[in-house]
Design goal:
Largest sheet: 8 strands, mixed
Number of domains: 4
Distance between the termini: 52 Å
CATH topology of the largest domain: Rossmann fold
CATH architecture of the largest domain: 3-Layer(aba) Sandwich
Number of strands: 12
Helix content: 40-55%
Structural class: alpha/beta
Length: about 575
């Protein structure tokens, strides 16, 4: 049940969730539909020659890492961009990024473009321009210098080889000599050649350090960029799904915010918490053409009629200890549907072989006469003014054992009239003439309801689902508490059919309420006729009579000023 309560805002705002999801997904589809595929080219460079050195030192590794970070920063700067554009003859460069790998001497240059050929070309040119920025990068002067050093290295290499060969030959000849003098001269020659070899090797090493082969501050391309064949994006399906999910999430958040800001009652628990009483009736909403009609007599197998039968039964249980002869039906607001419940409840009680009198005491906005197809030319207000007796003001409904007293012309002082002693006399007289007297009262937003609630045996409060505001219910209960009225329960009205299970805890069974809902036909308007005074046949078990009975004398009709 708690889960249903949390999911109710999503069910209530389902159209908002659907619309937001569709709009977000469709917008994303239109935005990504014409997007071209994106390709990515990668080239990798290495700083230094530590991997070609058989005995690299830790210092060389650390220096290579620092140089790699510095060169990566240089590659991302505007001079590199301008040099690359000039070299390729481009007016712009696609997006690229040069990054130094952690704990290594490698630099990655990644180019992202919609043209795979251009991506490859730009990646390789950026690497070339970065190599040119090194001391051994191959400038005009540097190139001549490197050529000279290379030639000198070649000469030194030849001299070193010749000297080594001479030393080897002298050492071989030394083994076959017998003369001491000859041996001493040969050893002297060998020593001189070894000194010469050492000088040649030193010169060779010094020259080699000034070349790219032996330098640490140098860059070489170890992996040139190749033409990309598969695009890396955009992932249109994922983009559309994420956009739809974001739209749904935002709509769900909006639904919960709107539900939080909406102070109307949305659950049975809220109604019972605000009214401190139980919900004893669950009346579902009706079609537009059935509102304002007596539908309980037009289709007895309709699920709504079953709801009224349940309400009637619950009222009977509520009156076991304290019998109810007069029942006031009121609400917190003027559009909660109290008149509809009063009219249909009167008919459903009359169908149980009870004599029912229905009074329209909403003297400000009377409406009972419209439900029964009667005229409101005369009624309760005329009884107060002394123009009619209560018998003459009572009209019989041709559809069943229901007598109706309409409101009549609206008086200027309804609160005073309903709170007068004459109203008590009217109720006591009607109790003697019927099993149940149902009073369609004014809403509690006016003082009339509080005045009238203190004069009846019980009050049935009507709350409209998703319509009645919580502050209005609190204000109504404050008036009920002050008047000391006896509240029998709450009838939750106009529950959306799809949510009836959430409010009442179960659904109407089609087996018991009918395998199908018969269309509700319009009831025939009855011709009102005046009721002749007659004694009540007998008391009924469900609504036993009270001890107070008094007949309204004709002379009392003169007190129409609100006594």
């Amino acid at each position: 049940m708690e889960l249903k309560r949390y999911l109710l805002p999503l069910r209530r705002w389902w159209w908002l969730l659907l619309a937001a999801t569709v709009v977000a997904g469709l917008s994303s589809f239109l935005a990504t539909f014409r997007q071209p595929p994106i390709y990515q080219a990668l080239t990798t460079l290495m700083v230094g020659q530590v991997f070609t050195d058989p005995n690299p030192s830790t210092t060389e590794f650390n220096l290579g890492e620092q140089l790699a970070a510095s060169y990566a920063e240089i590659a991302n700067r505007p001079p590199m961009r301008e040099a690359t554009k000039a070299a390729l003859g481009l007016s712009f460069l696609p997006d690229y990024r040069a990054t130094a790998q952690e704990q290594g001497q490698f630099i990655d240059i990644v180019v992202t473009d919609t043209n795979p050929d251009r991506a490859q070309l730009v990646a390789n040119e950026l690497a070339k321009q970065l190599v040119l920025r090194t001391p051994t990068g191959g400038g005009s002067q540097e190139q001549s210098r490197q050529e000279f050093i290379t030639k000198q290295l070649d000469k030194l290499q030849i001299q070193i080889d010749e000297t080594e060969n001479e030393i080897v030959q002298l050492q071989e000849d030394l083994g076959g000599m017998d003369s001491a003098r000859q041996i001493a001269d040969t050893q002297f020659q060998i020593t001189a050649l070894e000194t010469k070899l050492s000088d040649l090797q030193t010169n060779y090493a010094d020259l080699l350090a000034n070349t790219q082969s032996g330098a640490l501050n140098t860059i070489s391309i170890i992996e040139p960029a190749t033409r990309p064949t598969k695009p890396i994006g955009p992932n249109k399906a994922l983009t559309i799904i994420l956009a739809a999910a974001i739209g749904f999430s935002l709509a769900a958040a909006a639904a919960y915010i709107l539900d939080y800001l909406d102070d109307t009652v949305k659950s049975t628990e809220e109604v019972e918490q605000l009214t401190h009483t139980s919900v004893i009736g669950y009346i579902t909403e009706l079609d537009g053409d059935t509102v304002g009609r007596i539908y309980v007599s037009e289709n007895p197998r309709h699920p709504v009629v079953e709801a009224y039968r349940s309400l009637r039964t619950n009222l009977e249980f509520a009156s076991v200890d304290q019998p109810i002869k007069t029942l006031l039906i009121s609400s917190a607001d003027s559009e909660d549907g109290k008149t509809s419940i009063a009219a249909n409840l009167a008919v459903i009680i009359a169908q149980g072989e009870h004599k029912v009198i229905l009074i329209d005491s909403d003297l400000r906005k009377p409406n009972i006469h419209n439900f029964f197809g009667m005229s409101n030319d005369y009624g309760l207000s005329d009884v107060f003014r002394g123009k009619l007796s209560i018998e003459d003001a009572t009209k019989e409904w041709s559809g069943g054992k229901v007598s109706v007293i309409t409101a009549g012309a609206p008086p200027p002082n309804p609160s005073e009239l309903l709170g007068s002693k004459k109203m008590i006399q009217i109720l006591e007289y009607l109790e003697s003439q019927a099993d149940v007297v149902i009073i369609d009262g004014p809403p509690f937003l006016v003082a009339d309801a509080a005045v009238l609630s203190a004069k009846v045996d019980g009050v049935l409060l009507v709350v409209r689902a998703n319509f009645t505001h919580q502050p209005a219910i609190k204000a109504m209960m404050d008036q009920v508490t002050r008047s000391g009225a006896r509240v029998l329960g709450v009838a939750l009205n106009r529950i959306p059919r799809k949510n009836v299970g959430y409010y009442s805890g179960n659904y109407y069974s089609s087996y018991y309420s009918g395998s199908h809902e018969e269309p509700i036909e319009k009831g025939k308007a009855s011709t009102p006729r005046r009721k002749s005074p007659s004694a009540k046949d007998k008391s009924k078990e469900e609504f036993p009579p009270t001890a107070k009975h008094a007949k309204l004398a004709d002379t009392d009709a003169a007190s129409g000023d609100g006594d």
